[in-house]
Amino acid sequence: MTWSFETDPEFAAELEWVDRFVREKIEPIDQLVPDPYDVADPLRNELFKPLQQEVKDRKLWACHLGPELGGPGYGQLKLALLNEILGRSRSAPTVFGTQAPDTGNAEILAHFGTEGQKERYLAPLLDGQIVSCFSMTEPQGGADPEVFTTKATRDGDCWVINGEKWYSSNARHAAFLIVMAITSPDAEYHRRFSMFIVPSETPGIDIIRHVGHTPGVDGSHGYVRYTDVRVPADHVLGGEGEAFAIAQTRLGGGRIHHAMRTVGLVQKSLDLLCRRALSRVTKGERLADKQSVQHAIAHSWAELESFRLLVLRTAWKIDRYQDYSRVRGDISAVKALMPKLLNDVASRALHLHGSIGVSSEMPFLEYIYEAFTMGLVDGPTEVHEGVLARAVLRNYKADEDVFPPYHLPLLREQAEAAHQDVLLRHAAAAGRPEGHGEASR
Ligand SMILES: Cc1cc2nc3c(=O)[nH]c(=O)nc-3n(C[C@H](O)[C@H](O)[C@H](O)COP(=O)(O)OP(=O)(O)OC[C@H]3O[C@@H](n4cnc5c(N)ncnc54)[C@H](O)[C@@H]3O)c2cc1C
């Protein structure tokens, strides 16, 4: 039996390097680069490229990938330890080649793509030359694919896509979009959809709006209309009718990677909370000396550490089983817990900073927005709570009797029957009639 909470010294040294690199070189440029996904931004490229090269030279590029795809193949546990450092910074995942949604898109291209698809789309994606988009959610619903209406119909050696997609992140910067569309309307739900690789220059793709969260400012999520978009038949990803299975493969990894990075953002919120508590004095004492502030710090620390352990154990299970279906409940548990944890700790940090905390001169509102985002991307919290509950319930069965086998009177009756001789001896020794006193309480 092994049971260890230690990082091997060689990898711990790498993590120390990453921590310094992120704090000293990447976090500062978060202030200068508005959109890490904008591969056409010359400032972004000038600042990112040398850092990306340093990461590649250090053999830490694209750590989510196995050696066959150009990554070091560290596995999910080491990736978790790395990602929790990268989670501190908006730009860090892109500098390390581990940014969503490209990681998930790369994963499905690697799993399901043909050699031709891999050469044309996967190779430049893995190298960081391009970014990609996953276009699945529709305006009328995201959590339930039953309501999707985007269709693809076969026309000669092409498929023709028509429909609208909503919140397609980075559609404006993407070199290609992976679009989920109905190809067999009468098939059962799980076989109804196919996944298409659509090059962004294909005629008929119209980004109606760039949706975001700041009024009057273009965001990075495309409201995309596809009108008679023709893609060659060899641009189906996986087989016809396989979109559902592909989406599940993609989302399993994506969810746990978000959780790993969220550990980093919660840790950063707690760091800032503690620094403020030690620095600010009111009514003659530091905030840190006030009991309510200590309460906030203690709860934040304990909640973060419990969440982190669950994320690490889930990552360990993925490495051990190599089968996402065996950890679906675990992944849903971290997915459901992460928005509340981030919201709670970032809100406490904001509150403790007072007026400056609520202003745009501090990052806390951005973190709280991120918390709400984490409750929606890759499925709303309630859906994951349902998945987890069903996984837990599979370990139980219904009791048939109205008074169940754990009804206390029944348990007492059974215990008395099993230990009747002992009870009688004790009752006799105490001079009590049978059935009275301590033993029968
Ligand atoms: C920042 C961000 C980035 C995103 N990026 C992408 C992307 O790149 N590509 C893409 O395709 N999509 C993307 N999405 C969309 C995301 O996948 C959806 O928001 C999500 O699936 C929920 O769908 P919806 O927004 O239509 O909400 P709905 O499906 O309408 O759900 C709304 C609410 O209803 C409740 N609800 C829904 N289902 C259930 C249920 N079964 N039980 C109980 N309550 C329920 C929940 O409270 C839920 O929050 C992104 C979303 C965000 C916020």
TrEMBL record:
Keyword Lyase in record: no
One Gene Ontology cellular component annotation held by this UniProt entry: cytoplasm
GO molecular function, one term: acyl-CoA dehydrogenase activity
InterPro entries found in the cross-reference section: Acyl-CoA_dehydrogenase, Acyl-CoA_Oxase/DH_mid-dom, Acyl-CoA_Oxase/DH_mid-dom_sf, AcylCo_DH-like_C, AcylCo_DH/oxidase_C, AcylCoA_DH/ox_N, AcylCoA_DH/ox_N_sf, AcylCoA_DH/oxidase_NM_dom_sf
Ranges of residues in domain Acyl-CoA dehydrogenase/oxidase C-terminal: 244-393
Location of the Acyl-CoA dehydrogenase/oxidase N-terminal domain: 16-128
Protein name, entry field: Acyl-CoA dehydrogenase
Organism, scientific name: Actinocorallia herbida
Classification of source organism: Bacteria, Bacillati, Actinomycetota, Actinomycetes, Streptosporangiales
